[in-house]
Design goal:
This protein has helices spanning about 1-30, 40-50, 55-80. With about 100 residues, the protein is mainly alpha-helical. Helix 1 (about 1-30) packs across helix 2 (about 40-50) and helix 1 (about 1-30) packs antiparallel against helix 3 (about 55-80).
Length: about 100
Amino acid sequence: MMKQLIGGGIAVISGVLLFGFTLVAAAVYTLGSGGYYSEYGLYLSALWEVGIVPLVLSIIFFIIGLVLLFKAIDNEWKGKYFLIAEDTKPNDTES
């Protein structure tokens, strides 16, 4: 459960950082770009030149992180309020 919580937090933070840095890179790229596609505009053209792959990866990281966080919090919540017994293997002396 703690591994899911830590992994989810790291995935969410890395997704947000990658998304932000990609947008900043596109903004910096617009300063030096000479021309752009009129149908997309200056910023979207620069974003296209920087690449769509980092944006897709950041969204995937963010979604995976949220799923892991929700699973960890749900397991903790169930264990705390519903007193669900964990599955344990019987000892050899009990059988």
